[in-house]
Structures are given as C-alpha cells and as structure tokens.
Amino acid sequence: MYAIVDIETTGGYAANNDITEIAIVLHDGQSVINRFESLVRPVRTIPHYIQVLTGITNDMVADAPSFEELAPQLFELLHGKIFIAHNVNFDYSFLKHHLDVVGYELNCHKLCTVRLSKKVFPGIPSYSLGNLCRYFGIQIQNRHRAGGDADATVRLLEHLLQHNAEPHIQQFIKRGAKEQSLPPNLPKEQVDQLPYTPGVYYFHNQSGKVIYVGKAKNLKYRVSSHFTHNGAGKQRQDFLRNIYSITYQSCSTELMAFILESIEIKRLWPEFNSSQKRFSHSYGLYMFEDSSGYMRLAIDKKKKHMQPLYTFNLLIEGHRLVNQLIQRFTLCPRLCFMQTAPGPCTGTGESVCPGACEHKEPAAVYNERVQVALQWLEDWLPTFAVVDAGNDREEQSCILMEKGKFYGMGYIPAGVGITSREELKTYLTRYPENDYIRGLVYQYAERYPNKKVSL
C-alpha cells in the first residue's frame, strides 16, 4: 500500500519549523482508496514569503487542529505503508520528527518520485514536480498546496507505474537497499562506482562547485554513511538538497587521505565544511637586525610578506621555544622580546644575558650566538620521510618532512633507495603545510617508527 504525501511548512527544516498543511492519499497501485487533507495550526507564525508562495495565511490556520491533535490519525494512515513523496526525505523528515515529539515512532519504507522518475525516464532536463507534470501533460490544481501537489504526485506515480516502474520500486524498497536514503539529485551509480580504498571525496552542487570535502579509510563505506540518517536540522537538509554529484581521489594510505583532505579544505573552502577552516599558522618566529646591529628574535603574528623561521598555532608554543633558545645559548630576554617590562634585564641577574641589551657585549659577539642558536634550531627540526604502501606492488607512498615542516607527498618506485631529499623531491608533489598536517605526520612516525626514514 502506498501513502502519497505532501506537506506545506513554515520553513525548510523540521527541527525549528512546523507543518501548516498535510495531504495523504492512500493508493493500492491501481487506484486511490482513501484521502486525507487538513490545514494544521503551527506553533510559529508563517513567514510572509511562504504565505505568498502557498497562499496559506496565519488567519487560515488559526482555527485548524494542531499537529498533536492530528497525530493519531496521521500515524494510522502512514504506519505500515510505503511513504511516497516528491523529494521524499524532506516530507519524511518533518513527519518523523513531529510524530516523535508527540510520542509516535514512524518507520516506513520510503519511495522518492524524483529518483523513480530518473530511473523510468532518464534524461529529462529537470525532475521538479512542476516540470515533470508539464512534460507528461499532468495538470496541477492548487500548486504549492498540499492537496494539489499530492494529487499531482499520485498522477505522476500512476504514469510511472504504467511505464514499468514496479521493478524499480521493488529494488528501491527491498531490505538493505539504500537508494531512497540518497539525496534526491545524486545518481546512485556514482555511489556504486566508489572504490573500497582510502581517499578524499568531494560533494558538488548543481553548478559543479565543491560544497564538501571528506576523508575516508574506505571511500564506499564513508560516503554511504553520510546518507544513513535524515536529520531534521537546517544544515542537514540544506546539505542533502545541494548534493548533485561526487568525485574522489584515491590514496594508498589513510594518512595521505587525512593530509589531502586538510589541503583541499583550505584550497576550496567548501560551504559545508566547518572543521579546519579556522586552523592556520597564527604566529611565526622572525629575526631582524636592530639599529644598533644586534640580531633580534621575535614571535609575532604571521605576516603575509615575511617568511618565518618557524610557525606556531599558539603563542605559548612560540614563547616556549624562544625561552629554550635563551637558556641554551645565553641570549638576551629583552632582545628576544620575552621581557618587555621596564627595569633591569632579568637575564643579567640570572647570568643568562652577558649584557647585550645594555651594549656591554659587542653586537658581533652576541650575533654569533644567535647564529649558533638558529643553526641548532635547523638541526633540531627533523628531516625525514614516511614510506608506506603504494597503490600497487610497483610503488610506495612517501611523505616528506623537511626541517620540521611538511614538504609534500607522492609515490616512488618500489625498491628505490632514498639517498637524498633532493632526489626524493623529484617524485613528490609539493603542498602547503599547516600545524594540523605536521602533527598528523609526527604522530604517525612516532606510532610506526619502522616506516620513518631519516634524511
């Protein structure tokens, strides 16, 4: 038994919006056997633009029954039926959410007439309800009203059934089928073609723009998991509504997928990604020579046109490193901007600073220690490669860290001996780095020391 449903609402997502009108048509595959239609009194007022679109005003619903009053009858009509709607996940999310709120658990097989129309009649320019009805000569009365749109969806379903839609319907609703959980505009074939490998996937909108980037240990499983629940929140509904296609890049290891995801989020800045968008190098270690000829180290916010010696996400990380250099190489806290308050230099009192800040120590002597400190820093920052499995037996994956920074990654022929980093770079693609990527590689190298090759 089919329950063809259409609703009008106060907004585009269930968690913070109400149903203002509902129509349910019960159909046995041959003909209509029952029909229900009612306005619904919402808790929220109906926005003006929706009143203009639907013609449903606040005055019209003022004396209508509330959803809670209608819930027992609605549940009885829907329970045990195949829930059908044009873009079914929208209507289903509203009814499931609002029934849950008043104590009814709705669990139905779903059938989307958008997806079914694409199966039975591929290649139509648009699968909106209005366009399909024009294409097939189906008249819609009371457009953008629940009853009118539900009746039009019934006639569309009957037209599809007359053109051998039944095998597709059985395929959609069989146990384990995931077709109806997919976004209405995403071809199932694109999900079916995803490999069972690590990689990065991209969701595109109607114009082809990337709106989300994700990483996966297993591309097929991870992408499918995005569509296993149909949340009632605005972001979730907007996200599903805007997915029209998927592309992907396979990676030989999960670590490479993590790194590539971070790079691509920062490159593409997708609308529906939130994590890592705010993650950037906030501070850098800089060196300059002052008017008296003394070389000075300073932690400052990262500057666009200056190359830092090292970068930090947190100011405290930079201060920790500079204090280490001060202690190890008897540098002046004042010349390193670690002491900014007036008064005697704390370094001279602790016998750390020989008095460079008071010009008791010649600039040439002090600068020599600064250079030694910077050389130590360069030597202390490690250069190594992480060598791991490739896409096949003929290659190995390789990630290069150079002087503590992520250089890039790629694939090298299996069995190639790594003799120098310059030779290694010829096989690799250079990428921008950030602290997140750097942390990933360090943690991985520490966890799997056998895959780390020092250079």
From TrEMBL:
SMART domains: EXOIII, GIYc. One of its GO terms (molecular function) is DNA-directed DNA polymerase activity. NCBIfam families: dnaq. GO terms for cellular component: cytosol. PANTHER family: DNA POLYMERASE III SUBUNIT EPSILON (PTHR30231). The lineage of its organism: Bacteria, Pseudomonadati, Bacteroidota, Chitinophagia, Chitinophagales. DNA polymerase III contains a core (composed of alpha, epsilon and theta chains) that associates with a tau subunit. This core dimerizes to form the POLIII' complex. PolIII' associates with the gamma complex (composed of gamma, delta, delta', psi and chi chains) and with the beta chain to form the complete DNA polymerase III complex. DNA polymerase III is a complex, multichain enzyme responsible for most of the replicative synthesis in bacteria. The epsilon subunit contain the editing function and is a proofreading 3'-5' exonuclease. This is DNA polymerase III subunit epsilon. Pfam families: GIY-YIG, RNase_T. Residues 196-274 form the GIY-YIG domain. One of its GO terms (biological process) is DNA replication proofreading. InterPro entries: DnaQ, GIY-YIG_endonuc, GIY-YIG_endonuc_sf, GIY-YIG_UvrC_Cho, Ribonucl_H, RNaseH-like_sf, RNaseH_sf.
